[in-house]
Design a protein that fits this description.
The chain is of the alpha/beta class. It is built from 13 helices and 17 strands. The strands form 4 sheets. The chain has a 5-stranded mixed beta barrel with strand order 6-9-7-8-10. The longest helix has 17 residues. The protein is globular and about 60 Å long.
Amino acid sequence: MNSNQYCIIMAGGHLNRFWPISREDMPGHFLDISGSGKSLVRMAYDRCVGVVPHENIIVVTLSKFKDMVLKQIPELSEDNLLLEPQARRTGPCVAYSTYTLLKRNPDAVMAVTPSDLIIKDEAMFRKALSDALDYASANPVLMTLGVKPSRPDTEFGYIQAVGGREACSKNEPVKVKTFTEKPDKEIAEVFYSSGEFFWNSGIFVWQAIVIKEEMEKHVPEITRLFDGWEGALGSKAEEVFIERAYSDCLKISIDYGVMEKTDRAWVYPVNFGWSDIDSWEALYANMPDKDKDGNLSNTRSRILQKDRRNIILSSNKDKLVAIRGLEDCIVIDTDDVLLICPRDDRQYKELITGTGMPGFDEYR
């Protein structure tokens, strides 16, 4: 393994899209959403083991989740846990981790990955990430790992490659032509049928010095807040320095702030069974252990059922759950909330934003 290569795991924000199991004080990153016995952040850490030296794996999270991360990943050094005072999306997160790595190692090459992913073939993931890190070590590019679409999905971002269908079919790094965020169904159909597009996995690979240069060029409103990083980061002044920087930071993604504007964007084709787990519906689609009627259950309860199909059922209680005549629904039973609603993503998202739900916020 190359000592100049690092993995950055982003576990900030709140990821409350699995409400009512996830809450403001217990985001989805830290829950065993998949039923594997591991939280999403623990799974993300384990995927990086073997790609880079364990001392080169860094987790970025909110300050209030420090103890939770260290409990779930006890082997993680506190020096490798970067604490954000506020959630400011991926732009400031990348800036903080980039300047931290440059302070430690000016030759650092970094892979940046969200924690809220399901990867089906972890061996293939490690091989692809290692190859992408080697490519970025030798080339001053900003690399996104791109997934070949299996359907015209409207919930993912799309990356168009220079050279069209032929370039995409070669399974080798290719320059990016355009980025498009979550197109409507008609556009997604065009993208899918063209053969010129990849799904944006949200996993990036680049030299720290290259992303520094591009961030300072395209989002100076963020990078100027980190002026003085050379002396502050890694010192007793770091906490105050970061608190001040984040208090004025915009909420902006690295995709919008840099990747859509830079002329150094490349896409690295991968095929390791990727999915962005950002909703109950996405979880349902990616879990293989459904019963013969398409029901997905993660519960300690005894279940009495008849005529139920395509149900997501979760209960943390030792009780009898009786269901009859439900189809395509979510049933979630927690200590203080019972949720029963259609599995349709749009309707669920309206519900968890509090639309038409008086008193909803007190349960978030």
